[in-house]
């Protein structure tokens, strides 16, 4: 697979982040920073995004670095809103969207790297422009849109009862 030590660390922490996000989304419909799975997602995503800045097959700034910086911004905004805007129910919409969008963005390199590396010796895809990657990311985007709408509706109901 040809991963460096930083690449292995990045991958393991990234897998933990993705699993915790899935668990949080399944359990509560959101990535809830008040719950253990949400906290694990937040911290592992921070580490994964920061380590991504040290990984590159090409010299200089690349789209992967920009994606990592965007994810860092999204989870930081969500954390700020979670901690500093506790009583502001409108902030929950932005917090929920930021975390879910960061999760979706995290899946872009995850799908690309996984499909281009696994199974070893006969990967599922031949580069980032492979149609299988495009179709998979499109499906994930549709799921992201549906999930965001459901989260918005759920938060709207919560805000009305408070």
Automatic annotation (TrEMBL):
Q: Where are the transmembrane segments?
A: 6-28, 40-58, 64-81, 93-112, 132-152
Q: Which domain of life is it from?
A: Bacteria
Q: Which UniProt keywords apply?
A: Membrane, Transmembrane, Transmembrane helix
Asked whether the keyword Membrane is assigned, the reply is yes
According to UniProt, the name of this protein is Transmembrane protein
């Amino acid at each position: 697979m040809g991963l460096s030590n930083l690449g292995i660390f990045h991958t393991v922490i990234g897998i933990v982040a993705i699993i915790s996000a899935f668990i949080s989304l399944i359990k509560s419909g959101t990535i809830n920073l008040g719950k253990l799975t949400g906290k694990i997602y937040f911290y592992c995503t921070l580490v994964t995004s920061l380590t991504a800045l040290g990984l590159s097959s090409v010299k200089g700034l690349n789209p992967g670095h920009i994606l990592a910086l965007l994810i860092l911004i999204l989870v930081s905004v969500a954390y700020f809103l979670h901690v500093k805007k506790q009583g502001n129910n409108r902030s929950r919409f932005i917090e929920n969207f930021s975390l879910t969008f960061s999760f979706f963005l995290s899946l872009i390199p995850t799908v690309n790297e996984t499909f281009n590396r696994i199974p070893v010796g006969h990967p599922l895809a031949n580069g980032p422009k492979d149609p299988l990657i495009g179709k998979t990311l499109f499906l994930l985007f549709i799921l992201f849109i549906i999930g965001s709408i459901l989260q918005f509706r759920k938060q709207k109901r919560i805000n009305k009862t408070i």
